[in-house]
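Database export, one record per block. Field names are fixed; values are copied verbatim from the stored entry.
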Amino acid sequence: MRADRLLSLMLFLRAKGRTTAQDLARHLEVSERTIYRDLDALSTAGIPVYAQPGTNGGVFLDENYRISLTGLSKTELQSLFLSSDAKPLGDLGLAKAVEDSLLKLFAALPSSQRSEVERMRQRFYIDPTNWFQNIAPSPFLALLQQAVWEDCVVKVMYQVLEGEVAGRLIEAYALVAKAGIWYFIGKNSKGELRNYRVSRLQDIVLTDRCFERAPDFDLAAYWKESRETFERISMENFPPYHTVLRVHPAGFWYFPAWMNGRYEQIGTVDSAGWITLQVTFESFDDARTRVLGLGTHIVVVEPAALQQAVLDTARAIVAFHAQRGS
């Protein structure tokens, strides 16, 4: 609705300061013409919003203007109070502050809205961690948080995936938690932004050097682009491996437990209960390892290369252990 869009426009201007009609149109998913009509409507209503042409122009609210919100909608309440695991915030020492803030907001709500919040909290819960994921916080997280906050250069010893440990000077830009795993975003000596997995840091020293942060750096936009690029390159270098498998009832549990969304039943179940599945693995090696792990509860129908690899590996395992046993 237009009233919601006008409020969103005002809030965006208050949060971002001076911006362009193009950015507003992109954020609100409307045309620039609609943005200018909305600006006229706000101005007519007495809201001190301005649009200046030119190189240093843009759209902005008077810096002394304050937006007063008198109520929250049902969906806004749900987004604020939806129960979730606050582990990443806890890693940064902010979980208690978030809990206290929500408690104060909850106490200020009318009784009808407090009841709605309680109903929702007892019906929905978001747990962002993977099963059996128990990752201890890095001892360097507090130091990284300080470096990011103060725009400091840090000297780190970092272990790359291949195993090499190297020292680097990095401008500390940001920290991102992805599925409970922390990543450190920094600019290297070549001026390139890179992502470093915090758990691979071997040592970190906070230097006395500060840096000038790029004024156009947008963390959310950077991370989205970085994630999409990583996924695309991974798919190109390690394309999914498609298979057809026959699975015994005693081994079928593995697929809904560990391969959810990556398998599909094809055909009918035979008289002995064997099920034919079309399964997509991350790679050939991933397929071979998982098939071998299910032992006699699985048969490879296709491709032939995987059939042969499973046979060869099984024979090699038997020969190795027979030799060790003798």
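Remark 1: The mean pLDDT is 87.
Remark 2: Residues 304-325 form the longest helix (22 residues).
End of record.
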